[in-house]
Amino acid sequence: MTGAVATTNATRIVCILGPPRSRTSLVAGALQRLGLYLGPDERLGPEQPYNPTRTWEHRGIHDLNVEILRRMGGNFSSPPPLPNAWELTDSISGLIDRGRRTLTDDFGDSSFWGFKDPRTSLTLPFWRRIVQPTHFLICLRNPLDVAVSMSAPNFLNCSFEKGLYLWIYYLRSSFEATSGLNRHIIDCDQLGREWHGELEKLRKFLNEPVKPQSSREYSQVSNFIDDRLLRDRLEPLRNALDAFKWLKSADEYSDNATGKIHRLESYFKEKCVTAEDRLNHLRKNRWFANREKVAAQLKDNTPPGSKIALVNHSEWHGEEIPDRQIVPFCLRDGVEWSAPESQEDAISQFNEVADSDVDYLAFWWPAFWWFQEYPELDRLIYRRSQCLVHNDVLVLFDLGLSK
Questions:
Q1: First vs last Cα of the chain: how many Å apart?
Q2: Which of 49, 63, 141, 162 is deepest in the core (most CB within 10 A)?
Q3: What share of the chain is helix, strand, coil (3-state, %, to 5)?
Q4: For domain 12-210, which architecture applies?
Q5: CA distances (Å), 289 to each of 29, 281, 282, 292, 312, in order?
Q6: Is the pLDDT of residue 53 over 80?
């Protein structure tokens, strides 16, 4: 391996591969929220019309991939034929120093880092001359969905058949380049339906400790994936609107046809607004449904008349369970305070609550980030109390041990 980037045995390097529009950005964004370093923020690609949550592609790696394909006689949408040992040719070898500097400058001190660019599915032999990724992820999505997405006006605007060809070409290159290596296939269709299970499989493959669903990072991933998938449902409607804008600009249509186009455009606009309202409604309903779960679980696990300190009390006061006394966790001189400014303040507040007449301490999901923000508090609570409930919406502690 020529000009290799220095790494240690403990370094984990993740390479995310797969055809364009195969949800590689979704996987990269989720892993970034779980601690995978993708490079300095200013070096990561911005939002794009076809990807409003950014592409998570390192610009230096992206630019090198573009240059490699150009030197081999192709580009992103027209990949060149790559003969055996193409990465050893003089034209490509001249880019090794640039690639090594790119990785060393932006990833040299990281122990858990990675990169994502669909072009790497084609150029991986070049990058393996510089660094040896320890884990390869190949994103697999329904080719029909990929082809439709590629043919969208705001992406390649190519034919459906061309989209299918690119899916086959990129995917075949991904499998050939990682043959015999440590790789994991991500079912991105399943990721869209039930991402929790796919995420846990991914954690195990990456040798990443499975963190409880109460962690702040897990909540960030949940919000990122849920919102991204909800937005995906609007894509076909928006593509239809783009098509009608193009039709309206065509001069050869008769007045009668133009009238029909206007009526169809109005119809899809209405559908698009309805869909957006529906998504907002779903988000709101999900919040209320989770709140009802919290209320039911508090009722099932605490006796009537008990006093419960609720973290993040300002967003909910326990109206659904009036026979329990719900009080704020952060309370000073009878006034509710915001989150503690430091670990010490959080511990002091817990000790005050634990020594009072409060029976239970409850963290509902909007406050799960506390476990990551105040790790010493987390450990103290488990030492001084008994955990009764621990799931994706509620963590409940019995403070009886601390009395």
A1: 63
A2: 141
A3: 50, 15, 35
A4: 3-Layer(aba) Sandwich (3.40)
A5: 26, 12, 10, 5, 17
A6: no
